[in-house]
Amino acid sequence: MIDKPVIDLLNKQVDDAEEQATALPGASDVPAGTVKASDAGPGPRSVAGTVDSGAPSSTAASGILVSPGAGYSSEGPQIRSRTDSSVKVEVSGRRDVSVNHPIVELRRVSKSFGRRRNGANFKVLDGLDLLIDSGERGAFVVLLGPSGCGKSTILSLISGLARPDGGEIFVHGKPVTGPSRFSATVPQSYTCFPWLTVLRNVELGLLLSGQPEKKRRKTALDYLDKVGLSDRWDAYPKELSGGMQQRVAMARTLATKPDIVLMDEPFGALDAQTRADMQQMLIRLWEEEKNTIIFVTHDISEALLLGDRVILFSPRPARVVYERFNLDSELGHERSPDILRDPTFVKLCAEFRDRLKKAMEAAKPGDGSVGKAS
Known about the structure:
Number of helices: 9
Low-confidence stretches: 17-95
Radius of gyration: 21 Å
Mean pLDDT: 79
Distance between the termini: 38 Å
CATH topology: Rossmann fold
CATH superfamily: P-loop containing nucleotide triphosphate hydrolases
Largest sheet: 6 strands, mixed
CATH architecture: 3-Layer(aba) Sandwich
Number of strands: 14
Structural class: alpha/beta
Shape: globular
Strand content: 15-25%
């Protein structure tokens, strides 16, 4: 926990800064919580795709997606608890969403990138259908498949940071035409702003959503405590390990309380021990926060360790070749790293590996679509 004197000191600094700001000429003309382009520092506004300029109320910045005008419900949606599928848990502060529509729905979605040497499009998705129904609210859904099959592209399309070439995408029954206010992304690459401290990085999404300074400071400190970085609040990203930087990204994302958390192989670059620790921390945070998580990986063991539901995709263009629901009934709810040696777990890994092998063998030879999954 962060000591109270430290919090008091930070709040005093906030008060001093506000007094100085109001004393500046023209300061009264700037609304509270307004961020100038020059304040955000150099670099692109998005790291995950093209931001639709037609959605001015949303900002995509290094894995953060928030809407300044997004309404919050004091009651929130009904969220399914992993510990008991029959229990409905109310989550306070969550964005107001419909509980009658599917959480995510892709209808005949296609997406291509660039052009290959022969002049043909590089097709990643071709008429893909995918449904995460309303009954899966609060679930942990894993998209599993070989590298390059289109899993990350699916996340970008759900978030609204990329647009499909064809088909329709819906989140909570609303068509996705730009950055979605219902989701936030934790990308694979490290996305901390190097010129901001750990605390300022976590505060950024809250700042962009217009939260008052004292409130966002308290929220950021709370989430740093949740990810075990309460003692590094004043450090800069260059002073952190890769695992610590991903913890900052997770704290920054969860602090905005998104209904849907999109995670694109967030532990892919970490060593085995750090990865195992981060997986267990993610499970704990998910159970506390009750977000719906859509998690991308090409690691079969990781998929079965984390997921309620695992969807297996073929090599590109991605199509669903197999999926498994309600893994709690087979693997139990508590899944420590020791489960990797459990006979049922080993059998499920072999089944997924066999189905993936068949899908890869069925891919056309020489079309560049065959990737690898571990």
